[in-house]
Amino acid sequence: MKTVILAGGLGTRLAEETDLTPKPMVEIGGSPILWHIMKIYASHGFDEFVVALGYRPEVIKNFFLDYYHLRNDFTIEVAQGKIDVYDGGHENWRVHLIDTGIATQTGGRVKRLEHHLRDGTFMLTYGDGVTDANIAELVAFHRRHGKLATVTAVRPPARFGGFVFEGDRVAEFTEKPQIGEGWINGGFFVLEPAVLDYIEGDESIWEREPLERLAADGELMAFRHDGFWQPMDTLRDVRLLESLWESGDVPWKVWE
105-117: per-residue pLDDT in tens? Predict the structure, then answer.
């Protein structure tokens, strides 16, 4: 199953970090948060990724182009440019890096990936948040209910899109509510290809009309996660994640 990671935004609230670097490439513990997100998925056996690029796509492309050599030891014959790599057995990932345009909205980025996603169930997340949610259990929950879309619902401060429930079904989706049950959009979606028909084009914001329509049609279900979830929206968030990494108490580090 493929996992789409939205990695094209400007990260304006992290301007000090993202003037030259895409937000998903801001480092925690010496590795981009994008790497941390991919490690979470791969630890549950999901190791094929479609990364939707936008702002400074070459930075992310270069990271993966250089990844194999920089994460392994090697010998180089300088005169011939011959490189012998001592493979340390790093991540066995398949990564599709797709430029979806600098000004494209979140839904539009998913729509531009349509030719990669029509062949079966896929996952979707943002390139700036980590969790200790069990991705395998999330997928199993999605399979059981048989609807088109599952979103992971979490309970941080009410500054993200929220939900009104009927059982586990999302009866209503509202963007950035100030009232409600306290559950918000934590990302980490599981989706059927038919959700692509809910997206109009580049200007479509995934968190608005597509999710609102899916909820109205009874096709959006919530996987409630009471554990750790943390976005990286501000410098304060970066410092929090970095301090957790340095302390060794890393809730999202679900890999060995």
Answer: 999 999 999 999 9
